[in-house]
Amino acid sequence: MVGIVLVSHSPRIAEGTLDLVRQMVGDKVPIEIAAGTSDGRLGTDAAAVEKKIRKVHRGDGVLIMVDLGSAVLSAEFAIENLEEPLRSATAIADAPFVEGTVAAAVEASFGKSLAEVRAAAEGVKAYSKLG
Amino acid sequence: MAVDSVKLIDIIKVIADKITENKEYLTQLDSAIGDADHGINMSKGFRTVVEKISDMSEKDCGTILKTVGMTLVSTVGGASGPLYGTAFMRAGQAVAGKHQLDFNDLISVMEAALEGIKYRGKAEKGEKTIVDALEPAVETLKLCREEGLETALREAVEAARRGMEYTKEIVARKGRASYLGERSLGHQDPGATSCYIILEAMATQLLDDKKS
User: Fold this and answer.
1) Is the CB of B81 inside 8 Å of chain A's CB atoms?
2) Is B36 touching A (CB cutoff 8 A)?
3) What's the rounded Cα separation, in Å, for the pair B92 and B50?
4) What value of ipTM does the predicted structure carry?
5) Quick one: which H or E segment has residue A66?
6) What is the distance between the alpha carbons of residues A48 and A75, in angstroms, rounded to a whole number?
7) Is residue B209's pLDDT more than 90?
8) Angstrom distance (rounded) from CA B167 to CA B129
Protein backbone atom coordinates (compact mmCIF):
# COMPACT_ATOMS: atom_id res chain seq x y z
CA MET A 1 0.00 0.00 0.00
CA VAL A 2 1.15 3.53 -0.81
CA GLY A 3 2.21 5.51 2.26
CA ILE A 4 1.52 9.22 2.74
CA VAL A 5 3.55 11.91 4.53
CA LEU A 6 1.89 15.18 5.48
CA VAL A 7 4.36 18.07 5.38
CA SER A 8 2.98 21.26 6.86
CA HIS A 9 4.33 24.33 8.65
CA SER A 10 1.80 23.70 11.37
CA PRO A 11 1.36 20.45 13.34
CA ARG A 12 -2.25 21.47 13.95
CA ILE A 13 -3.00 21.73 10.22
CA ALA A 14 -1.46 18.30 9.65
CA GLU A 15 -3.16 16.70 12.68
CA GLY A 16 -6.55 18.15 11.76
CA THR A 17 -6.18 16.91 8.21
CA LEU A 18 -5.19 13.47 9.46
CA ASP A 19 -8.28 13.39 11.73
CA LEU A 20 -10.50 14.01 8.68
CA VAL A 21 -8.72 11.31 6.72
CA ARG A 22 -8.83 8.71 9.51
CA GLN A 23 -12.61 9.14 9.67
CA MET A 24 -12.76 7.90 6.10
CA VAL A 25 -10.05 5.27 5.83
CA GLY A 26 -9.37 4.27 9.43
CA ASP A 27 -5.90 2.92 10.06
CA LYS A 28 -5.61 1.12 6.73
CA VAL A 29 -3.25 3.59 5.09
CA PRO A 30 0.18 4.36 6.60
CA ILE A 31 0.20 8.12 7.13
CA GLU A 32 2.77 10.14 9.08
CA ILE A 33 3.14 13.83 9.88
CA ALA A 34 6.28 15.97 9.48
CA ALA A 35 5.12 19.40 10.60
CA GLY A 36 6.64 22.29 12.53
CA THR A 37 10.21 22.51 13.78
CA SER A 38 11.68 20.36 16.55
CA ASP A 39 11.58 23.37 18.91
CA GLY A 40 7.92 24.13 18.26
CA ARG A 41 8.07 26.92 15.66
CA LEU A 42 5.97 26.98 12.51
CA GLY A 43 8.10 25.54 9.74
CA THR A 44 9.32 22.40 8.05
CA ASP A 45 12.29 20.12 8.63
CA ALA A 46 13.76 18.11 5.75
CA ALA A 47 15.41 15.58 8.07
CA ALA A 48 12.04 14.88 9.72
CA VAL A 49 10.41 14.48 6.30
CA GLU A 50 13.06 11.93 5.31
CA LYS A 51 12.48 9.92 8.50
CA LYS A 52 8.72 9.83 7.94
CA ILE A 53 9.10 8.76 4.30
CA ARG A 54 11.10 5.75 5.50
CA LYS A 55 8.51 5.03 8.18
CA VAL A 56 5.46 4.88 5.90
CA HIS A 57 7.14 3.02 3.04
CA ARG A 58 5.65 -0.49 2.66
CA GLY A 59 7.21 -1.24 -0.71
CA ASP A 60 4.62 0.48 -2.90
CA GLY A 61 5.92 4.02 -2.73
CA VAL A 62 5.23 7.20 -0.80
CA LEU A 63 3.22 10.30 -1.68
CA ILE A 64 4.10 13.57 0.03
CA MET A 65 1.42 16.20 0.61
CA VAL A 66 2.74 19.76 1.09
CA ASP A 67 1.25 23.06 2.22
CA LEU A 68 3.23 26.27 1.51
CA GLY A 69 6.66 27.17 0.11
CA SER A 70 9.27 25.62 2.37
CA ALA A 71 7.23 22.42 2.65
CA VAL A 72 7.95 21.84 -1.04
CA LEU A 73 11.64 22.66 -0.68
CA SER A 74 12.05 20.46 2.40
CA ALA A 75 10.25 17.57 0.69
CA GLU A 76 12.44 17.89 -2.42
CA PHE A 77 15.55 18.00 -0.26
CA ALA A 78 14.42 14.89 1.64
CA ILE A 79 13.73 12.94 -1.56
CA GLU A 80 17.18 13.73 -2.94
CA ASN A 81 18.68 12.32 0.24
CA LEU A 82 16.98 8.94 -0.27
CA GLU A 83 18.69 6.00 -1.91
CA GLU A 84 17.24 4.05 -4.81
CA PRO A 85 14.78 2.40 -5.23
CA LEU A 86 12.97 4.40 -2.52
CA ARG A 87 13.91 7.70 -4.13
CA SER A 88 12.16 6.89 -7.42
CA ALA A 89 9.20 5.54 -5.47
CA THR A 90 8.59 8.85 -3.67
CA ALA A 91 6.62 11.72 -5.20
CA ILE A 92 5.25 15.11 -4.19
CA ALA A 93 1.61 15.84 -5.01
CA ASP A 94 0.95 19.23 -6.60
CA ALA A 95 -2.37 19.51 -4.83
CA PRO A 96 -4.37 21.38 -2.17
CA PHE A 97 -3.32 20.04 1.24
CA VAL A 98 -6.62 19.04 2.85
CA GLU A 99 -8.67 17.95 -0.16
CA GLY A 100 -5.66 16.36 -1.83
CA THR A 101 -4.82 14.32 1.26
CA VAL A 102 -8.39 13.05 1.56
CA ALA A 103 -8.44 12.00 -2.10
CA ALA A 104 -5.01 10.39 -1.91
CA ALA A 105 -5.78 8.43 1.26
CA VAL A 106 -9.05 7.09 -0.13
CA GLU A 107 -7.31 5.99 -3.32
CA ALA A 108 -4.43 4.43 -1.38
CA SER A 109 -6.88 2.53 0.84
CA PHE A 110 -8.02 0.60 -2.28
CA GLY A 111 -4.46 -0.55 -2.85
CA LYS A 112 -3.89 1.68 -5.88
CA SER A 113 -0.44 2.47 -7.30
CA LEU A 114 1.60 5.57 -6.46
CA ALA A 115 0.78 7.08 -9.86
CA GLU A 116 -2.95 6.55 -9.27
CA VAL A 117 -2.83 7.92 -5.72
CA ARG A 118 -0.91 10.98 -6.91
CA ALA A 119 -3.34 11.53 -9.80
CA ALA A 120 -6.26 11.37 -7.34
CA ALA A 121 -4.65 14.02 -5.13
CA GLU A 122 -3.84 16.29 -8.05
CA GLY A 123 -7.27 15.69 -9.59
CA VAL A 124 -9.01 17.64 -6.82
CA LYS A 125 -7.73 20.86 -8.36
CA ALA A 126 -10.34 20.41 -11.08
CA TYR A 127 -13.29 19.97 -8.66
CA SER A 128 -15.64 22.86 -8.09
CA LYS A 129 -16.79 23.17 -4.48
CA LEU A 130 -19.89 25.08 -5.56
CA GLY A 131 -20.93 22.44 -8.07
CA MET B 1 44.48 33.58 0.90
CA ALA B 2 44.71 30.32 2.80
CA VAL B 3 41.75 29.16 4.82
CA ASP B 4 42.17 26.02 6.92
CA SER B 5 39.47 24.28 8.92
CA VAL B 6 40.11 26.39 12.03
CA LYS B 7 39.75 29.61 10.04
CA LEU B 8 36.67 28.30 8.24
CA ILE B 9 35.00 27.56 11.58
CA ASP B 10 35.90 31.07 12.76
CA ILE B 11 34.35 32.60 9.64
CA ILE B 12 31.14 30.62 10.13
CA LYS B 13 31.00 31.69 13.78
CA VAL B 14 31.27 35.34 12.74
CA ILE B 15 28.51 34.81 10.16
CA ALA B 16 26.35 33.32 12.94
CA ASP B 17 27.08 36.34 15.18
CA LYS B 18 26.17 38.80 12.41
CA ILE B 19 22.93 36.94 11.65
CA THR B 20 22.03 37.01 15.34
CA GLU B 21 22.88 40.73 15.60
CA ASN B 22 20.53 41.36 12.68
CA LYS B 23 17.79 39.01 13.88
CA GLU B 24 15.26 41.78 14.60
CA TYR B 25 16.09 43.63 11.38
CA LEU B 26 15.61 40.52 9.21
CA THR B 27 12.38 39.63 10.95
CA GLN B 28 11.15 43.20 10.52
CA LEU B 29 11.85 43.05 6.76
CA ASP B 30 10.07 39.68 6.62
CA SER B 31 7.05 40.96 8.53
CA ALA B 32 6.44 43.51 5.77
CA ILE B 33 6.22 40.99 2.94
CA GLY B 34 6.44 37.50 4.40
CA ASP B 35 5.80 35.49 7.52
CA ALA B 36 7.88 37.51 10.00
CA ASP B 37 10.25 34.73 10.91
CA HIS B 38 13.39 35.08 8.76
CA GLY B 39 15.60 36.55 11.49
CA ILE B 40 14.37 34.13 14.14
CA ASN B 41 14.76 31.15 11.80
CA MET B 42 18.22 32.07 10.52
CA SER B 43 19.47 32.88 14.00
CA LYS B 44 18.18 29.58 15.34
CA GLY B 45 19.79 27.69 12.45
CA PHE B 46 23.19 29.36 12.70
CA ARG B 47 23.30 29.04 16.50
CA THR B 48 22.82 25.29 16.10
CA VAL B 49 25.46 25.29 13.34
CA VAL B 50 28.01 26.81 15.73
CA GLU B 51 27.30 24.08 18.30
CA LYS B 52 27.75 21.39 15.64
CA ILE B 53 30.98 22.64 14.05
CA SER B 54 32.89 24.05 17.03
CA ASP B 55 34.90 20.85 17.55
CA MET B 56 35.32 19.96 13.87
CA SER B 57 38.74 21.59 13.36
CA GLU B 58 40.28 18.20 12.56
CA LYS B 59 37.81 17.67 9.70
CA ASP B 60 38.28 18.88 6.13
CA CYS B 61 36.62 22.07 4.87
CA GLY B 62 34.18 20.15 2.67
CA THR B 63 32.87 18.13 5.61
CA ILE B 64 32.48 21.28 7.72
CA LEU B 65 30.51 23.08 4.98
CA LYS B 66 28.30 20.01 4.45
CA THR B 67 27.60 19.86 8.18
CA VAL B 68 26.56 23.52 8.08
CA GLY B 69 24.17 22.65 5.23
CA MET B 70 22.60 19.63 6.90
CA THR B 71 22.16 21.56 10.15
CA LEU B 72 20.46 24.52 8.45
CA VAL B 73 18.11 22.20 6.58
CA SER B 74 16.88 20.59 9.78
CA THR B 75 16.77 23.61 12.10
CA VAL B 76 15.85 26.79 10.19
CA GLY B 77 12.23 25.88 9.52
CA GLY B 78 11.46 28.30 6.66
CA ALA B 79 12.38 28.13 2.98
CA SER B 80 15.79 29.58 3.79
CA GLY B 81 16.63 26.23 5.47
CA PRO B 82 16.58 24.10 2.31
CA LEU B 83 17.91 27.05 0.26
CA TYR B 84 20.97 27.96 2.34
CA GLY B 85 21.26 24.29 3.32
CA THR B 86 21.60 23.24 -0.32
CA ALA B 87 24.03 26.11 -0.94
CA PHE B 88 26.37 25.03 1.88
CA MET B 89 26.08 21.34 0.95
CA ARG B 90 26.98 22.03 -2.68
CA ALA B 91 29.80 24.31 -1.51
CA GLY B 92 31.07 21.44 0.64
CA GLN B 93 30.97 19.04 -2.28
CA ALA B 94 32.99 21.53 -4.36
CA VAL B 95 35.89 21.36 -1.89
CA ALA B 96 35.44 17.81 -0.58
CA GLY B 97 38.49 16.45 1.22
CA LYS B 98 40.41 19.76 1.22
CA HIS B 99 42.06 21.00 4.41
CA GLN B 100 43.16 24.31 2.85
CA LEU B 101 41.17 26.61 0.58
CA ASP B 102 42.70 29.17 -1.79
CA PHE B 103 41.14 31.93 -3.91
CA ASN B 104 40.20 29.50 -6.70
CA ASP B 105 38.50 27.24 -4.14
CA LEU B 106 36.58 30.26 -2.85
CA ILE B 107 35.28 30.89 -6.37
CA SER B 108 34.30 27.20 -6.71
CA VAL B 109 32.54 27.35 -3.34
CA MET B 110 30.60 30.47 -4.31
CA GLU B 111 29.65 29.12 -7.74
CA ALA B 112 28.44 25.85 -6.21
CA ALA B 113 26.44 27.72 -3.57
CA LEU B 114 24.74 29.87 -6.21
CA GLU B 115 23.92 26.87 -8.39
CA GLY B 116 22.54 25.06 -5.34
CA ILE B 117 20.24 27.93 -4.37
CA LYS B 118 19.00 28.46 -7.92
CA TYR B 119 18.35 24.73 -8.29
CA ARG B 120 16.52 24.37 -4.98
CA GLY B 121 14.45 27.54 -5.34
CA LYS B 122 13.98 27.27 -9.12
CA ALA B 123 14.78 30.98 -9.03
CA GLU B 124 16.48 33.40 -11.39
CA LYS B 125 17.73 36.93 -10.86
CA GLY B 126 14.97 39.56 -10.70
CA GLU B 127 12.46 37.57 -8.63
CA LYS B 128 13.21 39.28 -5.30
CA THR B 129 15.15 36.47 -3.65
CA ILE B 130 18.57 35.53 -2.27
CA VAL B 131 19.70 35.14 -5.91
CA ASP B 132 19.46 38.91 -6.44
CA ALA B 133 22.30 39.46 -3.97
CA LEU B 134 24.26 36.25 -4.52
CA GLU B 135 24.44 36.07 -8.30
CA PRO B 136 25.96 39.56 -8.82
CA ALA B 137 28.46 38.80 -6.05
CA VAL B 138 29.57 35.52 -7.63
CA GLU B 139 29.74 37.07 -11.12
CA THR B 140 31.81 39.98 -9.80
CA LEU B 141 34.14 37.67 -7.90
CA LYS B 142 34.85 35.79 -11.13
CA LEU B 143 35.21 38.95 -13.23
CA CYS B 144 37.70 40.46 -10.76
CA ARG B 145 39.67 37.24 -10.36
CA GLU B 146 42.79 38.75 -11.95
CA GLU B 147 42.71 41.80 -9.70
CA GLY B 148 43.43 39.77 -6.62
CA LEU B 149 41.46 38.63 -3.62
CA GLU B 150 41.09 41.95 -1.85
CA THR B 151 39.65 43.91 -4.77
CA ALA B 152 37.55 40.97 -5.90
CA LEU B 153 36.00 40.50 -2.45
CA ARG B 154 35.29 44.21 -1.94
CA GLU B 155 33.68 44.48 -5.36
CA ALA B 156 31.69 41.28 -4.82
CA VAL B 157 30.28 42.52 -1.50
CA GLU B 158 29.41 45.85 -3.13
CA ALA B 159 27.65 43.98 -5.96
CA ALA B 160 25.67 41.99 -3.37
CA ARG B 161 24.71 45.22 -1.60
CA ARG B 162 23.47 46.77 -4.85
CA GLY B 163 21.56 43.57 -5.63
CA MET B 164 19.96 43.67 -2.20
CA GLU B 165 18.94 47.34 -2.69
CA TYR B 166 17.56 46.47 -6.13
CA THR B 167 15.07 44.05 -4.56
CA LYS B 168 13.10 47.12 -3.38
CA GLU B 169 12.35 47.94 -7.00
CA ILE B 170 11.02 44.57 -8.08
CA VAL B 171 7.95 42.44 -7.48
CA ALA B 172 8.28 39.16 -5.56
CA ARG B 173 7.82 36.07 -7.73
CA LYS B 174 8.79 33.41 -5.20
CA GLY B 175 7.85 32.44 -1.68
CA ARG B 176 5.36 33.96 0.72
CA ALA B 177 5.94 37.50 -0.62
CA SER B 178 4.62 36.47 -4.05
CA TYR B 179 1.10 36.40 -2.58
CA LEU B 180 1.43 40.19 -2.26
CA GLY B 181 2.22 40.71 -5.96
CA GLU B 182 2.69 44.42 -6.79
CA ARG B 183 2.27 45.27 -3.10
CA SER B 184 5.73 43.79 -2.44
CA LEU B 185 7.25 46.76 -4.33
CA GLY B 186 9.27 49.15 -2.17
CA HIS B 187 10.21 46.46 0.32
CA GLN B 188 13.69 44.98 0.55
CA ASP B 189 13.85 41.21 0.35
CA PRO B 190 14.83 39.55 3.66
CA GLY B 191 16.60 36.66 1.88
CA ALA B 192 18.74 38.98 -0.25
CA THR B 193 19.52 40.88 2.95
CA SER B 194 20.63 37.83 4.94
CA CYS B 195 22.73 36.79 1.94
CA TYR B 196 24.46 40.20 1.92
CA ILE B 197 25.07 39.94 5.68
CA ILE B 198 26.67 36.49 5.22
CA LEU B 199 28.86 37.64 2.32
CA GLU B 200 29.92 40.82 4.11
CA ALA B 201 30.89 38.87 7.24
CA MET B 202 32.79 36.30 5.19
CA ALA B 203 34.69 38.96 3.20
CA THR B 204 35.61 40.94 6.31
CA GLN B 205 37.05 37.82 7.90
CA LEU B 206 39.01 36.89 4.78
CA LEU B 207 40.42 40.42 4.45
CA ASP B 208 41.38 40.60 8.14
CA ASP B 209 43.15 37.31 7.63
CA LYS B 210 45.11 38.77 4.72
CA LYS B 211 46.35 41.70 6.82
CA SER B 212 47.57 39.54 9.69
Assistant:
1) yes
2) no
3) 16
4) 0.88
5) strand A62-66
6) 10
7) no
8) 8
CA distance B129 to chain A (A): 13
Name every chain B residue with its beta carbon within 8 A of the beta carbon of A11: none
Q: A107 near A31, Cβ under 8 Å?
A: no
Q: Which of B44, B77, B176 sits opposite A68 (nearest CB)?
A: B176
Q: Which residue is closest to B35 within chain A, CA to CA? A: A42
How many angstroms separate the CA atoms of B124 and B127, rounded?
6
Sorted by where each starts, the structural domains of chain B and their CATH numbers stand as: 3-211 (1.25.40.340)
**pLDDT of B211 above 70:** no
Which positions of A are catalytic?
9
Of B204, B198, B199, B208, residue with least CA distance to B43: B198
pLDDT digits (tens, 9 = 90+) for B38-50: 999 999 999 999 9
More confident: B8 or B175: B8
Closest Cα in chain A, distance from residue B151 (Å):
35
> What is the percent of chain B where pLDDT is above 70?
98
Give the number of C-alpha atoms closer than 13 A to the C-alpha of residue B52, restricted to the C-beta side. Answer: 20
Backbone angles phi, psi at B150, to 5 degrees: -60, -50
Q: What's the CATH number for A3-126? A: 3.40.50.510
Give the span between the Cα atoms of A109 and A4, in whole angstroms: 11
Cβ distance B82 to A73 less than 8 Å, yes or no, reads yes
For A78-117, write each residue's pLDDT tens digit.
Answer: 999 999 999 999 999 999 999 999 999 999 999 999 999 9
Distance (Å) from the C-alpha of residue B28 to the closest C-alpha of chain A? 17
pLDDT at residue B168 greater than cutoff 80? yes
B 16-35 residues inside an 8 A Cβ radius of A: 35
Residues of B in contact with A42 (CB under 8 A): 35, 37, 77
B78/A43 touch (CB, cutoff 8 Å), yes or no:
yes
Q: Which residues contact A54 (CB under 8 A, 6 or more apart)?
A: A82, A86
